[in-house]
Design a protein that fits this description.
Layout lengths: L3 E7 L3 H12 L4 E4 L7 H4 L14 H14 L4 E2 L3 E7 L2 E6 L2 E10 L20 E2 L2 H4 L7 E6 L5 H9 L2 E5 L13 E3 L4 E5 L6 E4 L4 E3 L2 E5 L5 H4 L5 E2 L2 E2 L12 E3 L10 H18 L3
The protein binds flavin-adenine dinucleotide.
Amino acid sequence: MDNHYDIGIVGAGPAGLSAAFTVRWRNRSVFLADGRPEMGSLQRAPHVSNYLGLPPMPGTKLRERFLAQVWDAGVTIHRLTVKGVYPENGSFALQAGDDLVYVGAVVLATGAPPRDLLPGEERLLGAGVSYCASCDGPLFKGKRVAAVLAGEDPHEVLYLAELAERVYLFTPPDNIHPPFPSNIEPIPESLQAVTGSEHVEGVQLASGKTLPVEGVFFFTGRLPMAQLVPGLDTAGDAVEVNLRMATAVPGVFAAGDITGHPYQVARSVGQGQVAALEALSYMGR
Ligand SMILES: Cc1cc2nc3c(=O)[nH]c(=O)nc-3n(C[C@H](O)[C@H](O)[C@H](O)COP(=O)(O)OP(=O)(O)OC[C@H]3O[C@@H](n4cnc5c(N)ncnc54)[C@H](O)[C@@H]3O)c2cc1C
């Protein structure tokens, strides 16, 4: 994988696809990442009847049309979750899966917040709570950790198991495919809270029981915004942007449901286009 691009786009829903198409239309290079493209809102829309110029159709069909056009323009969707966006000498490094990718400007198009954070999750961020085994795993060598896996790719959990003494695994039962290392222990209960005062001390289960751990890793495809890009302004769940889709972090733009209501395909597509054009002009191109 090449690791230098003009624009980096996080999320391949309507906003991210529109932004990526626009960058390619301007003949610039784009890195488009989506860890779980099947999880975007559009696939869940049974029918979209209000997209101008197209007949009513299921969200999955509309997405197929978007994808055909985007692929035709030469865009690749990298199936990677972006775990961090780091400013670096006027440009940015994206932690995408296990790789670092360098881009001149960033468009965030990660959709509406998918889930409420667990009690303790945000407070203990960086104090035992992590979203990236390849970044933070070595800090937990020989220790007990919990891992929450929403997708099917166990890659990060297996890496954790190489380092940690024990990995308590929280994942749907049909996601468990033995054989796996003996220090991975699937827990058939849901995780309710992360406990600890200064740093992670345990995880609380639905039964009320607490498992002592020093780290908790969430591999759920989506991260709290504060983790992904520190320094963004937010209003409730939405990332604040101006009319140019610029966030409070220079060079970082946002588009689509991430910027708040109304959650609509047409709005996401339009904002994606504006964000891409503004990201290109930020780079002086
Ligand atoms: C049931 C339902 C019905 C709907 N009906 C309609 C309708 O009739 N008309 C209408 O206009 N709108 C409708 N919508 C809303 C519409 O689907 C959304 O407004 C639109 O999909 C938002 O696009 P988006 O690109 O902002 O986000 P999304 O489509 O949610 O895409 C975001 C993408 O970002 C990815 N992502 C998140 N975090 C990361 C990360 N850290 N790294 C990499 N990738 C990441 C996700 O995997 C996801 O694929 C409906 C939505 C739902 C759920």
